[in-house]
Amino acid sequence: GQVIKMPVPASFNDITSNSSIRDFVGWAWYERNFWVPSTWLDGKTRVVLRFESAHYHTIVWVNGEQVMEHIGGHLPFEADIAKYLKNGVPNRVNAAVNN
Fold this sequence. Notes:
Layout: H1 19-22, E1 27-34, E2 48-51, E3 57-62, E4 65-71, E5 77-80, E6 91-98
Antiparallel strand pairs: 1-6, 2-5, 3-4, 3-6
């Protein structure tokens, strides 16, 4: 489908006045690449990925591995993702959210 750059935090349905997006119900995918310092990958450091809120059903992957799933809205959820991170290359987080 169409890729739309959007700020986070934000509501997918509120980023445009286009009614096909504003009124959309179903899965929306978010993707972000990021680098981590090698000191985070020492086997002792806890690296937490936290979502402050996502409505309603969310599945999250880091580097292709599912790291958490959450059902419910307006509540934070998190997971320790240290074991999924890679050194010296971009890491990727994907989140699928079904409203």
